[in-house]
Amino acid sequence: MTLVTKSSYVDGAFIPLGSSADILENRNPSHPGEVVERFERAGQVLTEQAIAAARRAQPAWARSNPQQRADALDFIGTEILARREELATLLAREEGKVVREALGEVDRAGRSFKFYAQEALRAEGEKYQSVRQDVAIDVFSQPLGVVGIIAPWNFPIAIPAWKIAPALCFGNCVVFKPAELVPSSAWALAEIISRAGLPAGVFNMLIGPGRSVGDTIIRSPLVDGISFTGSEHTGRQIARLAAEGMKKVQLEMGGKNPLIVLDDADLEQAVEVALNGSFYSTGQRCTASSRVIVTAGIHDAFVARLAERTRALQVGDALQAGTDIGPVVDSRQLEQNLSYVAAGLEQGAKLECGGERIDSPAGAYFFTPALFTEVTAGMRIYREEIFGPVLSVLKVRDYEEAFTAAEDTAFGLSAGIVTTSLRHAEHFKRHSSAGMVMVNLPTAGVDYHVPFGGNGASSLGSREQGTHARQFFTRVKTTYQLA
Fold first, then answer.
1. Can you give the pTM of this predicted structure?
2. What residues make up the domain containing 466?
3. What is the mean pLDDT of each run of 10 residues along the chain (483 residues)?
C-alpha cells in the first residue's frame, strides 16, 4: 500500500511542500522495517510563516468569547475519546508503548482537553481596596501571547495535550513542534484540532528537526513563551536563549527518581510498586523509579521477589496480547541502555537479571528490564538518568539513611516510599525535595487535573496541568481607577 505523505499545519491548512521536501519516515520500533507513515519535514521558512500567522491571530483570539474556546476544546476532547482505540494503536505502532498503556495515554489526552473546556469558563479576578481614598483596584489575567510548545517522544499525545489545551483555553496562539520520532500521534491530534472551529493561525503544528524548527521557535521575537519537555541538556540551552529574548519559559527536564522501601512495607505491594514505576512504559518516563533504596531488614526478600517478577515480564510487540514491556523507542535508545548496563558491570554492580537485547526476526528494539544490586551511590547507573528499564537497588540501614540517599540528587521530580509507618510516610511527604511524592504508589502515574512538575534540575518555571497551568499561560495585570 502506498503511503500518503503528510505535511505540517500552518495558518489553518496543511501545507504540502512538494517534490523538494525532505521526507521523514516514521518507523515501528516493534518492526523497524515497517514505515508507519511518511511526513514532509518543515524548515525555518515554514516555521517563520507559522509564527507570523500565530502573531496575526493572537489579538482576536485573546478577546474571544470563553464559550467559543470551551466548545472548541470540548470538541477536541470528545473526538479523542471517541477514537481511543484507533489512536492508541497508532501510538503503540510509532512509540512502542503496549496497547493498555497507550489507551490510558489517549484517555488522558482527551480528558485534558475536556478539563480545560470547563476551565475556559472559570474567569478569575480579584478586587482590592486601595490604601488611598476613593481608588479601586482590579487584578486579572491576560493571555501570554504566542506560545511555542516543544514536546518529547515518550508521551506523544498526552504531553502535547496537556500543553496545547491550557494554552488555547487561556487565549494564547500555539506553534507546536512534536518530536520527530513520533509525528503520527501529533499529526492525528492536529487534524482533530483543525476541525474544532479555531480561527486560522490560532494553532500551528510543524514536523521537523530541532535545529531548524525548534531553534526558530525559541529565537523568534514574535514568540512570548516556550513550554518544553525533554532532556536537561536541551532544557538548559532553551533557558539561556529564552533569557536573552526575555521569554517566559516552562521546562520539564527529567529525573532520577528514588523509591524508598522500608522494613515494615508489605513485600508484595513494594515489589508491585517498584516493578510498575521502574519498568512499565519500558522505563521511558521522566517519573520512573530508576533507583530503589531498600532498608536492610527487607532487602534480600525484596530483591529475590523483584528479580522473580522481573524475569517473568513478557517483552515483545507492543500490539501483541500478553506483552508487558514493548520495545525501546529506537536503536539509539537501545544502545544507550546497553552502554549503561556495561557501565554498571564495569563499576562493580551485580546484574541480577535482564539487561540484554532480544533478537527478533524483525530486528525489533527489544530489551529485557535490568535489575542491579550491590550498587553504590557513586555509580553512573545510580546517578544518571538512563531513560530506560534499568533499575539500581541501594541497600541502607534505616529510614534516616534512606531519606538522605533519596535526597542525594540534582533532580527533584518524583519520589516515593513504601511503608506502613504513618510517621515515616508523613515525614517523607513533608520533607522530600521532589515536586511530587507518592506513598505506597509508583513514582510514575499522575492525574491530569492537578499540578505536575518538580524542583532542582528537573523543572524550571510554573507547574503544568490543572488550574496551576494558568500561571504560565497568562500575565497578571493590576489596574487602578479613581472611584
1. 0.96
2. 5-253+458-482
3. 88 91 95 97 97 98 97 98 98 97 98 98 91 96 98 98 98 98 98 98 97 96 98 95 96 96 98 98 96 98 98 97 97 97 98 96 96 98 97 98 98 98 98 98 95 96 96 97 93
Do 17 and 43 lie in one domain? The reply is yes
pLDDT given for residue 424 in this prediction: 98
Question: What pLDDT sits at residue 7?
Answer: 97
Task: Quote the CA–CA distance of 247 and 268 in Å, as a whole number.
Answer: 48
Q: Name the phi and psi angles at 405, rounded to 5.
A: -65, -40
What's the CA gap between 433 and 430, in Å, rounded?
Answer: 9
316, 338: one domain: yes
> Is the distance from CB of 41 to CB of 25 less than 8 angstroms?
no
* Residues marked as catalytic: 252, 286
433 and 466 both lie in a single domain: no
In a domain, 32, yes or no: yes
Which residues on adjacent β-strands are paired with residue 464? 452
Residue that has been written with the C-alpha cell 487535573 in this structure: 449
pLDDT at residue number 202: 98
Q: What is the DSSP secondary-structure string of 224-260?
A: -EEEEES-HHHHHHHHHHHHHTT-EEEEE----EEEE
Angle, alpha carbons 377-383-386 (nearest 5°): 140
Within this chain, do residues 180 and 280 fall inside the same structural domain, yes or no? Answer: no
216 and 266 in a single domain? The answer is no
Domains contained in the chain, number = 2
Which pLDDT score, from 0 to 100, does residue 123 have? Answer: 79
What are the distances in angstroms from CA 75 to CA 11, 120, 195, 199, 447?
A: 20, 13, 9, 15, 21
Residue 460 CA: distances (Å) to CA of 39, 226, 456: 32, 11, 8
CA proximity to 326, closest of 25, 104, 102: 102
Separation between Cα atoms, residue 83 and residue 429, nearest integer Å: 38
